[in-house]
Amino acid sequence: MKTFKIVFFSLLISSISASAQMGNNMNNMNNRVLNQNNTMPNSSPAQPTAADIEKSRNERIEGYMVKLKTALTLDDLQYIAIKNDIIAASKRMDIVMKSSNSEEDKAEEVRATQEKTEKNINSYLNAEQREKYKLFLEEKNSKKKEKDKKKKKTEENNTDVPN
Fold it and tell me: For 110, left (φ over 0), alpha (ψ -120 to 50), or beta?
């Protein structure tokens, strides 16, 4: 009986130490898996913050203003006034696009905002600059139309290819 107790306790102790070691390995493996999941980049893109949106808007407007300043030879006062109008119009358009109105209403409001902005810009310009501005807008619109045509062609080519 004494040998039975010794064998029984030795098996018990060895099984406890084996399970304890196995438990530690499992915990380490679980921790590694959790760490890998936490350090992996999210596959979904993060929503831009208000600061990111504002920064992007300012960069876009600044690029546009540089082109406008060189094309129209604006002085500093005109530059600042036009830039402020464009920033206000851009913010207004963002608000309109986020509203719950129908697409037709949104398009109408955006068009009205653009017309108002154009009138304001024209009010800051002299006659020569107005002519240059008109040509600038026509050139910009023609480039946009060309870009849209190229985009449509590539989309058509991509859909025509059989799989």
Answer: alpha
Each residue's pLDDT tens digit, 50-77: 788 888 888 999 999 999 999 999 999 9
Integer Cα distance of 96 and 101 in angstroms: 8
Angle at Cα 36 formed by Cα 34 and Cα 37, nearest 5°?
A: 65
Alpha-carbon distances of 85 from 88, 107, 119, 128, 163, rounded to whole Å = 5, 19, 10, 20, 50
The gap between the terminal CA atoms of the chain, to the nearest Å, is 79
CB atoms near residue 119 (< 10 Å): 10
